[in-house]
């Protein structure tokens, strides 16, 4: 799966975003190490704080289906489906990635122009806290 292919799946997914409050549609496409793709969208809530980001929706769909090994995630986002800028993952989503992914997990940000950026998780979440810090469970 190419970066561009994964971005296309994220864009397609974003059409299902539930965003009556912000109007920002976000789509994510999460690639497993075995080559499967799980998509996700942001799902907002009238009470605001229960809102779930697109990236976490994708992760929770995948993990709930038994997936635990991930290669990359593509993300697009913008007001009313206008992806003119990159839309980087929030801190909470980065922490969820940290739970399941290694330092070299790829985060691909796409925009309508066709340009994209690729980061490793370690670049977006340095000196992070993760599962290995919890030893006595
Ligand atoms: N959002 C995401 O889906 N992913 C992020 O990483 C950042 C923010 C969503 C949440 C909310 O529905 C909208 O974008 C505006 O914050």
Strand content: 15-25%
Task: Please write the string of helix (H) and strand (E) elements.
Answer: HEEHEHEEH
Shape: globular
What is the mean predicted local confidence, pLDDT? Answer: 97
User: How are the strands of the biggest sheet laid out side by side?
Assistant: 2-1-3-4-5
Low-confidence stretches: none
Judged by helices, strands and strand pairing, the structural class is alpha+beta
List all distinct small molecules, including ions and cofactors, that are bound in this structure.
tetrahydrodeoxyuridine
> How many helical elements?
4
Describe the overall structure:
- The protein has 137 residues and is of the alpha+beta class.
- Helices cover 27% and strands 25% of the residues.
- It is built from four helices and five strands.
- A five-stranded mixed sheet has the order 2-1-3-4-5.
- It is globular.
- The N and C termini lie far apart (37 Å).
- Bound molecules: tetrahydrodeoxyuridine.
- Tetrahydrodeoxyuridine binds next to strand 1 and helix 2.
Please summarize what this structure is:
The chain is α+β, with helices and mostly antiparallel strands and 137 residues long. It contains four helices and five strands. The chain has a five-stranded mixed sheet.
Topology:
Blueprint: H1 3-14, E1 24-32, E2 37-41, H2 54-64, E3 70-79, H3 91-100, E4 106-110, E5 116-120, H4 121-124
Parallel strand pairs: 3-4
Antiparallel strand pairs: 1-2, 1-3, 4-5
Bound molecules: tetrahydrodeoxyuridine (THU).
């Amino acid at each position: 799966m190419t970066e561009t292919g994964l971005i296309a799946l994220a864009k397609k997914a974003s059409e299902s975003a539930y965003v009556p409050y912000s109007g920002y549609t976000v789509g994510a496409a999460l690639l497993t190490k075995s080559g499967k793709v799980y998509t996700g969208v942001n799902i907002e809530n009238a009470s605001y704080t229960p809102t779930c980001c697109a990236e976490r929706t994708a992760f929770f769909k995948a993990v709930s289906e038994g997936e635990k090994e991930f290669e990359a995630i593509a993300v697009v986002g913008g007001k009313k489906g206008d992806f003119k800028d990159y839309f980087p993952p929030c801190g909470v989503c980065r922490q969820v990635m940290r739970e399941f992914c290694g330092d070299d997990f790829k985060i691909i940000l796409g925009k309508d122009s066709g340009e994209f950026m690729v980061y490793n998780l370690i670049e977006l979440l340095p000196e992070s806290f993760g599962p290995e810090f919890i030893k006595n469970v």
